[in-house]
Structure formats: structure tokens, C-alpha cells
Amino acid sequence: MQSHRFSTRCMIVVVGCLLLAQAGAWAQQPKPGGTLRVAWEADIGGLDPYISPGVQSWHVVGNLFSSLLSIDANLNYIPELATSWDIQENGKVYVFHLRRGVKFTDGTDFDAEVVRWNYERIMDPAEKAFVAPFFAIVDTVEAVDAHTVKFILKHPSMTLLPVMAAERTGFLQMSPTAFKKWGKEEIRLHPVGTGPFKLAKWEQNQIIVLEKNPHYFKPGLPYLDRVELKVMKEGVTRVTALRAGEVEFANYVPREHLERLTKDPQIQVFKGRDTQRTQSYFNLRFPPARDERVRKAVLGYGIDRQAIVKTALLGQAQPLWSFVPPGGRDHIDFGDDYPYNPDKAKALLKEAGYDEKNPLRFTLMTHGAEAALPTIATIMKTQLAKLGVEMTVEVIDRPIFLRRLVTDRDWEVLLNFSGAALDSYSMTRALDTRAGVNVTNHDDKHMDALIDRLKEATTEEAYLQAGHDLQRYTVADMMYFLSVTTLPFIQAARNSVKGYENLHGFKIRFETTWLEK
């Protein structure tokens, strides 16, 4: 049996960190109270942690709900509603020991039966929970007693912990009582969790107000009384409001304002690991895309990623090929495999039957929710024209884009951006033909076999190797699903904001934030 309770060595590290933190606390003691005003980039689609779509919703629900596990700034798994966990039977059984005395904001108790109920809700096909494929590895969940819950997997696997800690929203716990009261359709408007805050008000396209949960299970937290997320869809509006002091915090800061904000003595900028990315790939239902020479010519040798970084992202990103960014856990750099080489790209296209007399033609579908995407698409069009490729750019509204991507599936090539990716397993939902969205519409069973190897790994070494093999096959060998650049996630705040922990776009949490005024 493997135990994940703190060892003596870990305790020494923890004590050392606490002493350092205490030294800082002597110099600057957190002050409770106050309202943090945040310039927020978009409204949300709801506050149901497993049904409501969109990155903005995922970031808000992390302040209302808690997961069994979470991550820290170094991407380590840390306890949250679980105090510790044991891994048994070579990774087939995970036993979580739960915090005692935790209550939901509706006054009901959190316990092992609640955990089991949340798992069963996720796996109910009628719910259509977007995290369900990640939990498909689980066979059964048993409430051993009120404060112990056992997850029995279908086979040994290392994928459960990252899913609970970081994938999408993690394994956030909702009040079953609240769900039964409000029902599937209305619960998104009445979220009830155990998080540091509770919902006070939501005026669509205007403001989302969070109030302190006075019964939060972490003593002394949160420090803030309120968080006001003011919807400001234009980046320049968010930056202007921050500099004028109309808000204390700005989310999703446009890259073109980074240099100016960095030089402002009243402003602090948060820019951590590169965990997000822009990505482009072919729809394999599009006949020319079935020839791997076409895919490698266009998206391998035919794209000058460094030029795209310099022009579209103002030099604040990195060229990227893998679907795992360098800020993730097991990134591979395929730059040496696919350097920008127009001559080689032309030769591959000619082999595939495309030349001046018979040019490759396709439409690239993208959207403007990320401001850089239309610019990147235009640069790609210019670069590919040098190969004789005739590319049309189609910029559409993001809701229509998403419908066509996963429902209509009537596109040829797309350009999109992603949320934070932790490791290779993060993208298996997009690649698996059996229990995922299979965004490229491939029918490659070897891909499924590689995903199974990743799920079945029982050691860190085997998990890493399986992840690398999946990346190499998907990106370098077959070029099914790949990236163009990293995508910096930038936030900024006035100097009065203290204690904010930058979690690199995986989560946005304000529980340790406080105001010095």
C-alpha cells in the first residue's frame, strides 16, 4: 500500500515553509475585510461545475465549490476536502480520508455519501457532464464510513489524481440537497458548495458578486468580504479601469498592454507558466487531410511559428507543436522535427498531388474570442500562399464555432485556443474515439491503444513514457492534433492586492487574497 499522508521529510519541508511564511506574516499581516473589484472578460453560462460551459464559468465555480484535491503553484497535488489518501492494490484502489465538520453553504453536511452522489451524477448519461470521460476509469465508489470514501478503478491507473486536482474544474462537490431542491435546469443559478465564497448576485453581462462563506473549513479564510466580477468585454476597458483605480484586479490582460503595465509603479503583473496554447488541425473527414503528407506540409514545415509569435503575440509566447505546453508536466519540443521549411513543404504537397495546376484549397475556421486568432489566421494564409496553398479564413462567433466544431463537424481546418493543460492525459478526451469528442474525427485505433497505455500506467516512469509516446504519435508521426504557439495568461492588480496565488490559468482562486488599504 502506498500512503500519501505527510512523511517526516515532507513535514520538514512544510515546517520550513511555514516558518518562511510566518516571517513574512510578521512583516505584513493579512487584513480581513473589504471588496475586491475585478475587471472580468466575459459573462458566464451558469455555475453548475459539471454542466455550465466555458473557461469563465470554470474559473468562477472554483471559488464557490471545493474539490477533494487541488494543485499549488508548482502543480503539486494538495489536500482540500480530503486530508490524505492511500493508494492500494498497485493503483486500482484509492481511499480518501475526508475533512470532518465541513458544511455546505445551505447548512447540510459534507461526507462520503456526498462524494459518492457527486460521482454518480457526473456519470449519469442524462447529465452530459463534460468531465465524465475522465472518470470513466472508475468502476465503483463506496462510502466506507462518513469520512472515508473508496474509489475502485477498472484497472490500476495514475489518472485519477490529476483529474480530481486540475482537469477542467477538478472534482468539485455540490450539495445534493440543493440539487434536489432546484433541479437540473435551475441549479446553475443557485450553486451551493463548500468553497470560500457563495453567490450573492449575478446580473447577466453586468456583474457577478461573491460573498464570504463565514463557515469555510479553512480557518481564517477567506480574508475578503466580497468579490465583484465586473464584466468588461474589451481588454482596453479592463486595463483602463485597473489603472484608474476603478477595479483592483484585471483578468485576461491583453498582451499589447503588458509592457505599459509592467512599468507602472502602482501595478503588479501576474504571468506564470505557459500552460495555454493556440492550436490548429485538419478535420480528417476532409479528403485531402487523410494524406499525412498534406498535414505535415501545411502544419509542420509550412508554418513559421516564430514569425507568428513575433507578430501576432508580440514576442510574448513560444512556438509550440505538442498539445502539452512547456508549462505542463511532460512537454516535448518537436521544433527540430518540424522546422519551418517551405521547400520541403512544397515537395510533400507535390508528392500528394498538389501543385500550381492543382493547388490545395481549404477554409480555416476560427473566431475572435481570443484576439490573436484572426491575426494568426491571416499570417498563416500569407505563409501558406508561398507554397501555392489557397486558404480562405472564416472568422465566426465562438458559440457558432463550437457548434460546428463538435456537433455539425462541417469544417476543414480550424484555429482555436485552449485552457490550461496539465499533461498528456489532459487531451485524451479530445482524441479518444470511444469516450470523448474526437475533435479531429479520426478512426485510428492505435491512438486509442496509446490512450489505454497511459490510463493503465502504474508508475511515474511508465506514465511519463506513455504520455511521450502519445505525443510523438499524435503530433510528430501523424500530425493529427497539434499547437501553433503558447498563449500567455496574464493578470494584473494594483499594489494594494496582496496574497493572490497565481495558478497559471488552471484555476483563479481568491481565498488567500486580501487588500491593504
Question: Would you write up a description of this structure?
Answer:
- By secondary structure, the chain is of the alpha+beta class.
- The chain has a domain at 277-486: Dipeptide-binding Protein, domain 3.
- It is 31% helix and 21% strand.
- It contains 15 helices and 21 strands.
- It has helices spanning 8-27, 55-61, 112-123, 160-165, 176-186, 235-244, 258-263, 292-301, 305-312, 342-351, 372-385, 398-408, 428-431, 445-456, 460-477; strands at residues 2-3, 35-40, 69-71, 77-79, 82-88, 93-98, 138-145, 148-153, 197-203, 207-212, 226-231, 249-250, 267-271, 277-282, 361-367, 390-396, 413-417, 482-486, 490-494, 497-498, 514-515.
- The strands form five sheets. It has a seven-stranded mixed sheet.
- Strand 7 (138-145) and strand 8 (148-153) form a beta hairpin.
- Helix 8 runs antiparallel to helix 10, helix 9 (305-312) runs antiparallel to helix 11 and helix 14 (445-456) packs antiparallel against helix 15 (460-477).
- The radius of gyration is 24 Å and the shape is globular.
- The relative contact order is 0.15.
- Residues 1-26 have low confidence and may be disordered.
CATH architecture annotation of the domain at 277-486: Roll
Work out the helix count: 15
Helix content: 25-40%
Strand arrangement in the largest pleated sheet: 9-10-11-2-12-19-13
Specify the CATH homologous superfamily of the domain at 277-486.
Answer: Dipeptide-binding Protein, Domain 3
Query: Strand tally, please?
Result: 21
What's the oligomerization state? single chain
Highest-level CATH class of the domain at 277-486: Alpha Beta
User: N- to C-terminal separation?
Assistant: 50 Å
Which word captures the global form? globular
Q: State the low-pLDDT regions, or none.
A: 1-26
Q: Radius of gyration, rounded?
A: 24 Å
